[in-house]
Amino acid sequence: xxxxxxxxxxxxxxxxxxxxxxxxxxxxxxxxxxxxxxxxxxxxxxxxxxxxxxxxxxxxxxxxxxxxxxxxxxxxxxxxxxxxxxxxxxxxxxxxxxxxxxxxxxxxxxxxxxxxxxxxxxxxxxxxxxxxxxxxxxxxxxx
Length: 143
Description:
- This protein is mainly alpha-helical.
- The chain has one domain: Winged helix-like DNA-binding domain superfamily/Winged helix DNA-binding domain (Arc Repressor Mutant, subunit A, Orthogonal Bundle).
- It contains 6 helices and 2 strands, in the order αααββααα.
- The chain has helices at 10-43, 48-55, 59-71, 87-109, 114-127, 130-142; strands at residues 75-77, 83-85.
- It has a two-stranded antiparallel sheet with strand order 1-2.
- Helix 1 (10-43) packs across helix 2.
- The radius of gyration is 18 Å and the shape is globular.
């Protein structure tokens, strides 16, 4: 394997840092819409208390995040009712689910246990580029 330089100049570092901050900002939205979608599929509805339990966060955290997701057009709510995904929210949930499943399958193909692959995929799925994700899929197809 050819050696590449690992020293980055300040411009490259800044680009990488900006990309990482953006990914972190999107990570919570992706996790929430995916969890909402899963709750709707399994229970027929997504309530705040179930969402808090599913994500291991407090009810207050769910309320604040759901308000942000509403502003972003990903969910709708009504007082004392379930949380609903908008069309945009459903599309993001499906994309997040596919990314997650692809990363899990790739890690398992490398011989990583299912339990560890699922744990590791939870962070990787948000930070892997579309280019890398396509490479994972190609690897899985030819395997």
